[in-house]
Amino acid sequence: MNSSIENNFFATEDELNRLVVFIGGFDPRGARYYHQLMRSESDKQSGFLEKIFYKVGKRNKIAKTEGMGGGHSQWIIESSSSLKKSSSDFIFFDWHDEVQKNWTEKRWSVFFQAIYTYAAIFKLKEWLAPIRLQARYTLWALMYPLAYVLLVILLGLGLGLLFSTNTESASGAVAVALCFLGLALWGGLALDRYIHVSWLLRILNFAHSSSLKKSPVLDERIDAMAQELAQGMQQARWREVVIVGFSVGSVQAVKLTAALRGKLAEVQSSPHSSGLGSQGEVNLLTLGNCIPLFALFPGAGDFRRSLRDVAQDRQVYWADISSPSDSVCFGMCDVVGLSLREDGVKLASEPSGPESAASGVGKKVGQWGLNPQVMCSPRFHKLFLPETYRWLRRNKMRMHFQYLMAGEVAGAYDYFELLTCPGSLRDYIEKKLVR
Fold first, then answer.
1. For residue 257, what are the contacts with CB-CB under 8 A and spacing of at least 6?
2. C or N: which end of the chain has fewer Cβ atoms within 10 Å?
């Protein structure tokens, strides 16, 4: 491994930690924001549970080396109770610089870009039918910005026509109508600061644009991280490796998982390899996944190939935790099957024998291939009082970030316990979260 990276990893020979590699969503905020979020929310979680306490260590930047780029950061997250204490090494995979390159600041420009995005989506309308059947609330959320814009335009034109009826000239009536239309559009942009329509559009626009062009910098960064992880796993430096993809980061997490499996195969086949043993399994955890959206467009062929490889890989344990109440994600649906429809891939038959029972745990729908091996909901409604949860349902952005945040009352889903649980991630999820 590169010495600058190796010296910054935390695991010691005395007690191997779990290594968590976290990839955030389409968010221009970097590691500093997510580190502060983890600190503040873990304190809240510790406070109301009163039985498990969490501690988030100091954030350190990993030295930039050739191919790594970005500004990956690392810290330790610990959990302790009267019965046990455990910790995980946490790496924040940085790609916010790539997000910033695709982040349009001006809201009106975001809305204009969305015209081309929606035009591309309507060309693929035959692939929207299965999404409507399995994730209709998500499809409604994707159409919500379009409905919002049309409503604002109709409101402006309606008011313009109403107040222009008393004008004597046609040119005056047109001027009044255009004035009210402009006021309505201005008001719609101002209101967007509170209801975050442009946030949804930015994700949609990025899904479309990323299918049309490659990102060599991000691809190299993923490949370099996969190489580092493969060598570390070969040396048995961690108890297990968990790649966590949140929101749009679920797409990059799938790519990293596929790249890591390829690197592990290369390392294992090397004449100097000592064998992977129990370190061969790779854990993929997706939270609030957006995978079918990014696989929808024809230009996303490379991503669909990575997704297909991960879906069929028995050495990958993939658990998807995505809530149907989070209308921005694809929760409890056939994530892979919906994503591969563009390629005309037929649904694979379910595996048979002893492995089929394990792979079927937690499934609510038939799915393509082996992975995700577990699909479960975080059951957000169990983590809040009824009045708080009603507010949460109305705030789409806040609901979408709940995967990374503390609840209000004790429930099965605890993000911080999930990351620091002793034993294996597989055992924890299947014992505590699967219903």
1. 243, 282, 284, 306, 310, 316, 318
2. C
User: Coil, helix or strand for 9?
Assistant: coil
| Number of CB atoms found within 10 A of residue 191's CB | 12
Question: Tokens at residue 233, please?
Answer: 């796993």
Nearest to 418 by CA among 408, 432, 400: 432
CB 408 within 8 A of CB 384: yes
Chain-centroid distance, C-alpha 243:
11
Side chain identity, residue 32: R
Amino acid at 312: Q
User: Residue 35 is encoded by which pair of tokens?
Assistant: 């580190």
SS3 label, residue 404: helix
Closest CA to 19 of 279, 407, 335: 279
CA distances from 124 to 120, 134, 298, 347 (A): 7, 17, 9, 20
Strands of 181-281, DSSP E? 240-246
For residue 32, give the nearest of 56, 9, 11 by alpha carbon: 56
Per-residue pLDDT of the chain (435 residues; tens, 9 = 90+): 443 444 444 444 446 899 999 999 999 999 999 999 999 999 999 876 668 899 999 999 987 654 455 589 999 999 998 778 899 999 999 999 999 999 998 888 999 999 999 999 999 888 888 888 898 888 888 888 999 989 999 999 888 888 887 776 788 788 888 898 899 889 888 888 888 899 999 999 999 999 999 899 999 999 999 999 998 998 889 999 999 999 999 999 999 999 999 999 887 776 655 544 445 679 999 999 999 999 999 999 999 999 999 999 999 999 999 999 999 999 999 999 999 865 544 444 344 333 333 334 444 456 788 999 999 999 999 999 999 999 999 998 999 999 999 999 989 999 999 999 998 999 999 999 998
Please, which residues have CB within 8 angstroms of residue 9's CB and are 6 or more apart in sequence?
19, 74, 89, 232, 237
Task: Give me the amino acid identity at 103.
Answer: W
For residue 350, the 8-state DSSP code is: P
DSSP-assigned letter for residue 218: H
Tokens of 284: 């993929």
pTM: 0.88
Residue with tokens 């995005």: 117
Q: Are 79 and 53 in contact (CB under 8 A)?
A: yes
Cα–Cα dist 19/119, whole Å:
42
Q: Residue 29 region, left (φ>0) first, then alpha (ψ -120 to 50), else beta?
A: beta
